[in-house]
Amino acid sequence: MSKILILSRNQDINNDLISLLNGVGYEAISVGTEKEAVKVANDFFPDIAIIDTSIININIVGICRSLKLQNETNDTQIILLTSKDSPSEEVLVGADGYITKPFNENILIATVNAHLRIKKLLDILYTNNSELAKSLYQLNVLYNISSQLAGTLDKAKLINIMNTGLDKSLNSSLCHTLVMNEPQDATLIINSIYPISETLEEALKLRAMLSYKSMFENNKLPFDLSIENITVEKHIKEQDGLLDLNILHWDCMFSPISTADKFFGTVEIIRKNEFTGEDSACFQTVVKQVALPLESALLYEEIQKTNIKLEKLEKLKSEFISIVSHELRTPLTSIKNSLEMMLSGRMGEITSVQDNFLTLAKRNVDRLAGIINDLLDLSKIEAGKMEYRFEPLNILEPVKFVLSTFENLADKKNIHLSLNATRDEFKVYADSNRIEQILTNLVSNAIKFTPINGKVTVIIEEIDANHVQITVEDTGIGIKAEDIPKVFDKFQQIESSLSREVGGTGLGLPIALQLIEAHKGKIWLESEFDKGSKFSFVIPLMQNLSSRHLKSVKTYKK
Amino acid sequence: MTASNKKKILIVDDEPDIVETLKFLIESEGFESIIALDGEEALKKAKEENPDIMILDVMLPKINGYKVCRLLKFDSKYKHIPILMVTARSQEEDKVIGEETGADEYITKPFDINELLEKIHFYLQK
Q1: CA distance A355 to A342
Q2: What is the pLDDT at residue A497?
């Protein structure tokens, strides 16, 4: 029912108007003074105020302004009841319409109706506007939240962004979020406008707990939670107030924070004013938006944990290898030295059988020492701790040296060991010890896997202006095509009766590969089963290395 | 000073088995051996006995071999003593290996007695 307030000191006019307006179905009341008018209007919310301007000393501008400035009546339509002798200047200010006295009843009702329509349209416009503004604001908040959520993988920060977003977009009095941490431990984050009473805090804990449990009803809970294991974290906005159990009668919205396969917790917001459908949509959107980054955060956390574990394991592994190799070297030293001294005849004459077995023992001690060296080298290379002493050198020198150390062994098997170099000098920037190590591995393999009366040839040639290629070719047992890709893998020794016979760690080739890569080179293998193998590697020639490269390779002093 | 003109070799290692084999080797070569089982004893014996050569293990109780080596090599009274440093290439050793110790030779365990003897003879003739 439309409401009309009448201000006039003339009781007749008041009565006339009230009965007239009541007669057409409007609620009308009258007052006699401006002060009264302002006060009554505050409770009555009139749609229209009719002011009789014939009152002596009335401040028309003042009363209009008072009504328009008062929140409850700022869109009340003001109609002035004027007469011919009303001061014209004043009546033109602040009012929305005019009726001249003596008034025609029909015109008055028509005027009132017209203003009521205006008032209604204004109301609709106002509501639409404020809804629009609210939606726009919520949209803006949502946009902000989503960009903030995308920027972090920290669980606590994500929850905080969600809570701030809910608070901003929905203007709740209280928001409580139950966040699961560990299997049996959860945090209840309470964001409240005012401090909360102790009983409310307890009630919220219970409420969050029960809501959580009721969500899963008969199914297994993702987290076994008891109320003692809920830690409360409170954020209070303002101090001048107190929230108690009453707020549990207010309007509320509740939602789990979860994705299809992960559950993170629950959230509930409470406020006095009812939530609209749009509010609910906004609430759901915000909560859904946080679930996905929470899942990513969880994965990220797991990855980090795994990484730390892996790093620790890696460190442990290299420490282990280092310690073991050290601990093995010391006893090996005594064994080796004792055997060598017996073999040297310092301890008296030995028979040829004794010599035979002592030599056998010594050979195996040397092999063990070699394995330890390989293990240590590989673990150093993998840990990036291998030290290289690069210097300009003629690669023929280490090659010749290595071949000289194998002469005896080759002779024993009657293997023809030869070097075939196209030039006298191939200048490279390399660590000669490492080049020796690479060649020792390749040549010893070649001799090992080549039957008696075979041939092992080392070929050194310039393949282009920038690279020198070293090839170790044998007439040995060869490698089957399907096994070729495996030869540079760790601990890979192609199964064959011969490989069992000759032994070895299977570490020589992976070490050679790594050492060659450290020299900016490449190694590959060509082989034909039963015919022989050809291992080749290239490394850059010296003149083509830029000075920058020379500087970037650190030299180490021993 | 002992009356004999045998060359004196100071063996420093905390492993009794290594000490025993080295002692036998040294003596069978006709040298006189002096033994020290830790870094402190090594320093003391080096200063008292003034050996002709020193075989020094790195990982030693009390004072490590690197430190012993540095202390002697930076002392003008003893820096002439050739030092053969024996390492087992452990991680701790790798850490300090970059440091300047002044050792004349590094020998990796397990070493070859013939190589060791070659080196001893080489430094004794110097």
Answers
A1: 9
A2: 43
